[in-house]
Amino acid sequence: MSSARAEQSGQERAAGDFLRLQRDLAQGHALVRDEYSSLITVSGPDRLTWLNSLITQDVLGLAPHQTVESLLLSPHGRIEHAFFLSDDGLTTWILTAAKHAEGLAAWFRSMVFRMDVSIDRPQNVDIVATTSKELLSGLGALMVFSDPWPRVGTGSVGYAEDLHPGNGWELHWAAIQKETRVSSEVLPAEYLEALLIAAARPTVKDVDEVTLLMSSIGSAQRSTSIKGVIGARRPSPKCTTSVILRGV
To answer: Which of 2, 81, 236, 245 has an alpha carbon within 20 to 30 A of 194's alpha carbon?
Structure first.
């Protein structure tokens, strides 16, 4: 008699594998190779002061290896870019959507003026993600970004009274050299989507070209603070309400 597993069709086996792999990722037993994210680095002694003048997040007091989330807004308050930042004491690393990375880097370069900063796009680097930070140990990560969602950022206000769907959410990205040997199971980036949905974690894909900053402010807890910078061209009054987006 054939086993039940042997009688499954190829499509059923594929579905079963998908659910198993999705479960492995959710439980911290697998990595995702995130081809949809990319890196920008900002180095130089003026980097945090300079970034603080351009983006919505207050990064003047950014501690080494602390991850924060920020936006770049147009003069009309529309969201142009969303990204994570983390600093290693010498360089600020920015994790953003790959398709927007070159445009964001170019805009940063256009705003350098006389500040002592240098903008770069790291090469020969892969981005991997996991729900277990322990899984990243031994990979020689150049930088690790830990998603602050759905915790309320410093200076921000949370309005939700009920437990957030993302309570307990944990997701970490690591920048590693391309030749790094990875012993854990590595999955395509699409496996992240279900986890993001389950945690009510919005992404930049949830925003279109007419989305306004204020229309993105909801009743749930948010992790990105707004300090009144709109594209570094038209400051608005300071506001400590935070919004919903991440950069990948």
So the answer is: 81
